[in-house]
Amino acid sequence: MPFITVGQENSTSIDLYYEDHGAGQPVVLIHGFPLSGHSWERQSAALLDAGYRVITYDRRGFGQSSQPTTGYDYDTFAADLNTVLETLDLQDAVLVGFSMGTGEVARYVSSYGTARIAKVAFLASLEPFLLKTDDNPDGAAPKEFFDGIVAAVKADRYAFYTGFFNDFYNLDENLGTRISEEAVRNSWNTAASGGFFAAAAAPTTWYTDFRADIPRIDVPALILHGTGDRTLPIENTARVFHKALPSAEYVEVEGAPHGLLWTHAEEVNTALLAFLAK
What we know:
By secondary structure, this protein is an alpha/beta fold. It has a single domain (3-277), classed as Rossmann fold. It is 39% helix and 18% strand. The protein has helices at residues 41-49, 74-87, 101-112, 143-168, 171-174, 181-193, 196-201, 238-244, 260-263, 265-277, and strands at residues 3-9, 12-21, 26-30, 53-57, 93-98, 117-123, 221-226, 249-253. The chain has an eight-stranded mixed beta sheet, with helices on both faces. β1 (3-9) and β2 form a beta hairpin. The longest helix is centred in the middle third of the chain and has 26 residues, at 143-168.
């Protein structure tokens, strides 16, 4: 299997599993919590059919990548992404992040610039700043909320994932219509296969402050979000994000949950392909 080494922990290397398919302009897809690069399958198929080269990789601690106990912060995640881009020598690339993966996109552009990057897309994003503070009243929740997530993951991450995916896909509305029990089970299995340390460390990165990163986005951008997102509510994320980045193309998918890559794949793919074609 293909791996890219991004670091070292004690006697073992930290390797990221990746897949690289197709030809044409490269599109790098960066997954969300607690999934893997395979969560992009409905977008990967559409992009390949449209003539793009599609690269997915599993973030450290997730999927088939190494499961280290270090490096769970967006500076390191962005450095890992930079290593992927440099190792594959990608040029004129499009970075597409989903949920937690949008943080890599913002921090990469802020830290490494856009010499290799043509466009960026933020799907169900966590920007600009999830933490509710005195100077950020639009934040989604106080730090205690995220501390509670960490505690629940440490207590029984498998039970946590079951509840998490209920709201991730809005199963009370979409199960049996827009998503099957089998697809939900696959998401749970993917989550369970990731590392225990990453599962608890990841939520502490969600309240990273990206407000200083946003002005450095100097390439065409897409912000796309579901109005029914219970995980990262649109009023705390995409709508505030768009005000901070008014040049971005902005799309709201009516009624879509956080996991809209699967439940509303047609709407997502239509908007993404139209953005890429411009």
